[in-house]
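Homework help board

Subject: predicted structure for assignment chain

Our instructor gave us this sequence and asked us to write out the predicted structure in token form, then describe one feature. I got the tokens but I'm not sure how to describe them. Can anyone check?
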Amino acid sequence: MSTVITAQQVSDLREKTGAGLLDCKKALTESNGNVEEAIVILRKKLGAKVDKLASRSAKEGLVESYIHLGGKVGVLIEVNCETDFVARNEDFKAFVRDLCLQIAAASPLYVNREEVPETELAKEREIAAAQVQGKPPAAVQKIVEGKLDKYFSTVALLDQPFVKDPNRTVKEMLAEKISKIGENIQVRRFIRYQLGT
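My token output:
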């Protein structure tokens, strides 16, 4: 016997995930009304959709600025999307403002981990390996990779925990926006200014 899925359940799931109504209903039906399972199903499905959208060109978008209270920290960011229509969308604009807030609060140095220079990574690997001397080589490798992941979560914007929801990364929030809006969205670049540095 299948579970009856209510409109309220679908609406609640949509609010949590940003997925479309039909996708939410299908996920709830597939999970027999289990919200946590439905979220996992949607994340898998939306991940594939995000990968497909990522190949499309994003040449429109916004340049947004943010000055933190007191004028001690400022951020300038460029976020691209595919169409001018989306660039004018309030949901997209709010997301770009949230990214500015993220950068002001968390001080990332790079957009993603691919931008981190290899010399910096080599230095971090060396430091991490020195901290775990005497352990078996396989364990050292895993520990070093774990420490590198932690390092990325401090210097790479997309790997950081989102300031408004620390249980999710900025990359996950970006993927959610891409699936909700239905266009490729890319954080192109940013700069963070801090008085006295």
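Reply (TA_rk): Your tokens look well-formed. For the description, you could write something like this. The beta strands are 60-67, 73-81, 161-162, 165-169, 186-194. That's the kind of observation they're looking for.
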